[in-house]
Amino acid sequence: MSRAPDQPRDPLAWCAIIALAFWLLVLANLAIPTAPYFDEVHYLPAARELLAMGDYTNREHPLLGKELLAAGIALLGDNSWGWRIFPSLAGALALFAAMRALWFSSCSRFATLAYGVLLATGFALFVHARIAMLDIFMVAFLCVAAWQMAGAMREPETGRWRLALTGAALGLAMAAKWNAIPLAVLPGLAFLMLRWRAGRRRLLLSRRGAPVPGITLAEAALWLGAVPLLVYAATFIPAYCFANGAIEGGLIAHHREMLSLQTQVLSSHPYQSSWPDWVINWRAIWYLYELVDGAQRGVMLIGNPLTMLLGLPALFWCLWQGMVRRRAAHGAVVLLYAVSLGFWMVAPKSVQFYYHYFLPGMVLLAALALSMDDLREAGWRKSALAVLAASMVLFAGFYPILSAAPLEGVNSFTWWTWLISWR
């Protein structure tokens, strides 16, 4: 009698260990600088107004991210720990959820754990987990949505509650920042297209066929269409209660105002860049570089100079694998990258920055993890492991200007600015 093939073991415990280790590293020196820096100067005053129900400020962005910042202040006080504790937790959640999403998509232990290492040492997730900005919340909830959607497709017996969580997470992601909207529509569209391709005659009511057998298209529309919108709308409830500037004309009218604020023409900025710069890791942003808390300190946002570039050929490999070999996980990361980056190619935003590449960059690293797994399966195990080792070494080398550690002097930045465009 032939022996059943071995099933891949779920690396759940290792995913949790990597995420916990990352969070502990983020917590080290989290309270430095003790004064707000970069965009914290916009979001923290808005969070304070939320707590006081005073003026409705920072109206161009949805409320959820500022509500979470306000919760941190209420929990730990109006200090740097209170400001940054929930961003740090969101960073750890994003890392864990992203690994789980890749596991359910690929069933590859190596790709899943390699992805965790690449994300943790990829610079952007670490930097954004240590600053009170909105982007980390958006990314965390999108990662949760990807995790639950992939889980529903892999384990249809859990499909109903996973799709419900997917919808809730999509609503929360949009409520953190509008940048999530292009990706938030993909799960519903994917369900529709895959069910259509399954050839079901009763398209709306059939429970058979991909992507989640047992769930009708009508029910999926509830979880992936209605629930996100309801969750998103619910996060605006406090906006009706401000003493000054509360919503009066209804949520739709308020969103017209938000859209006008988002699309207004802004003056140029020395750190502004565009998507071609992001793709080749060309333009950095210094979130901080000044004498603060008794020392010269800096926080530079740039991608890991190795993995951000290796991710580009990996993306083409995944494109080939997805189109020619019909490998779903490989094709999915290409689609997610194209949509998340393509949004910024057409977005009517006059000034853009490298932090807008945060999400596409995370997807790019998923492509690299899958490609490294294929390299390993082809017999190039040492080469795949060398990429992980080099990524960790580079992270360790750049750590002082990712973590606001004390620097030797005012010109210390030259050690890490390998390109003039990084200055």
From TrEMBL:
ArnT-like N-terminal domain: residues covered: 78-238
Pathways per UniProt: Protein modification; protein glycosylation
Transmembrane feature ranges: 12-32, 85-103, 115-148, 168-194, 215-237, 298-320, 327-347, 353-372, 384-402
InterPro entries according to UniProt: ArnT-like_N, PMT-like
MF terms (GO), sorted A to Z: mannosyltransferase activity
Localization per Swiss-Prot or TrEMBL: Endomembrane system
Gene Ontology BP term (one): protein O-linked glycosylation
Signal peptide: none
Presence of keyword Membrane: yes
Entry annotated with the keyword Transmembrane: yes
Family designation: Belongs to the glycosyltransferase 39 family.
Name of the protein in its database record: Polyprenol-phosphate-mannose--protein mannosyltransferase
Organism expressing this protein natively: Qipengyuania marisflavi
Lineage: Bacteria, Pseudomonadati, Pseudomonadota, Alphaproteobacteria, Sphingomonadales
